Amino acid sequence: MARMHSKKKGKSGRKRPKDKTAPAWLEQKPEEIQERILHLRKEGVPPARIGQILRDQHAVPSIRAALGISMGRLLRKENVPLTYPEDLINLIRKAVRLQGHLKNAKKDRHNRTRLARTEAKIQRLVHYYTRVGKLPAGWRYDPEKAALLVR
Questions:
Q1: Which fold has domain 86-150?
Q2: For the chain, how are helix, strand and coil distributed in percent, rounded to 5?
Q3: What value does the mean pLDDT of the chain take?
Q4: For 7-39, how does the pLDDT look when each residue is reduced to its tens digit (9 = 90+)?
């Protein structure tokens, strides 16, 4: 897939397991995996980190293959929804870090451009999520209030 603000086409990325069924060597039962996911989420661990923890520490290659449903659907079914989409929060964190850097380095033009690009991505995501219904209709991104949102 092409990059948004450059002409490059990166090749890095994750390699999903080819088989969409749970492997035979998986020792955990789906109930144990589901219980572990809900426990980690209630501790405040974001969904992407939960997948990494299950993969690296508990040898679960794919949550969808092990449970039959995705983690997002499982969390919605168990009434543990996310307040904001994770990709939007990560972009807002990045913008807040760049704003903090630019307060100290006012002449840093390259990072000022990166901040503008990051905020453009945030605006596009906000437009999409308000249209889909994951964010309220009047939700706006405000750079001054963004620091309070991600803390």
A1: Helix Hairpins (1.10.287)
A2: 60, 0, 40
A3: 89
A4: 777 777 777 777 788 888 888 899 999 999 999
